[in-house]
Amino acid sequence: MRRASVGLACAAALIAVPACDSGQATPPVSQAAATPSAPLPQPAGNLCERVGPTLAGEWKAEEQPPASFPLADVCSLTNAADPNNQYSISLGVLPVSAQDAAELRKYDVRRLKGHYVVQPVDGGVGQDSWAVDPAAAGPWVVFRSGNRLVKVSRPLGGKGQLNAVKAVARTIERLPGGFPPTRSMHRRPECERGTAAAEKLLAAKAAARRDTLVNGFVSCRWASTRQAAVAIGGGLGSDAAIAFTNLRNAGTGPVVSNRRVPVGQEGWQQDNGFLAYQLAENAFVTVVAHPMPSTQSAGVLALARALRPIHLR
Questions:
Q1: Using the 8-state DSSP alphabet, how is residue 16 labeled?
Q2: In which residue ranges of the chain is pLDDT below 50?
Q3: Is the pTM of this model over 0.70?
């Protein structure tokens, strides 16, 4: 714009001002105008660290294990004066389109059936949003911002809780600088034993990974935008141990969709593909392909068997 304005000024004064004669050199453009502007600094901290200071009171931000589907980095905010006053915030690892978001909303609808008497409604936040407010659980809002999927939830339900979730979601949408790029691949070498089987479930190369080691137990996650293959290990009292106990106690029968499968000391799998098995007295694993229900039960079992050695402690 600076060059254009100089040229126009000379053109307008061409007859009256000899200094603007076409034979004379054009005055040099200032160095400041010629130098490209420096890129804006990337925002520092995860979403919880950025949102916490905007809330009333003192809040503690902590990183949490990744969400398996859609694959997301998760953090939590806990009020210093009331530990039950919490938010969980998930930021999707992979970019999503409006069509992707619509498919993931359909998955939320299917997942709710049989668990809650509630349907998602328009979230009123950001793009392609939806909100769920179950009577027996905490509410959540999902929305798309900057082509990333964000989920904000509360662990407890009740009057005003959904509005509180929406307020945090709107704060996230307005954060300056948007979302910084994230590393798509967080790999652990132990999980490579299962990559071939996992990518068969995805029917593609994994676009993102979130492998973790928590309390000595490895968990492996492979994902594309609309699919994921996940194996999560844990000890006594873990989600994996609870899932195994529930499947084993359900047993088999004409109205039970469980069956024994040959993996670990004892393994059980549902018709929807979900599998849980015990490796040792204090070692349990769940393996699943998302979205559920999966028609690839054999592929899930193959992934479980490929990874069995890494969960032995």
A1: T
A2: 1-36, 38, 40
A3: yes
- Measured distance CA(230)–CA(111) in Å, rounded: 17
pLDDT digits (tens, 9 = 90+) for 255-270: 568 999 999 999 999 9
- Same-domain pairing of 22 and 82: no
**Beta pairing, strands 185-186 & 208-210:** parallel
Residues 79 and 197 in one domain: no
User: Whole-angstrom Cα distance, residue 130 to residue 162?
Assistant: 12
Q: Which domain holds residue 55?
A: 47-173
Three-state secondary-structure class, residue 87: strand
Element (H, E) at 166: helix 161-173
Q: pLDDT for 144-193, tens place per residue?
A: 998 999 999 999 888 899 999 999 999 999 998 888 888 999 999 999 99
124 and 23 together in one domain: no
Tokens 């520092």 correspond to 44
Q: What is the CATH number of the domain that holds 287?
A: 3.40.1000
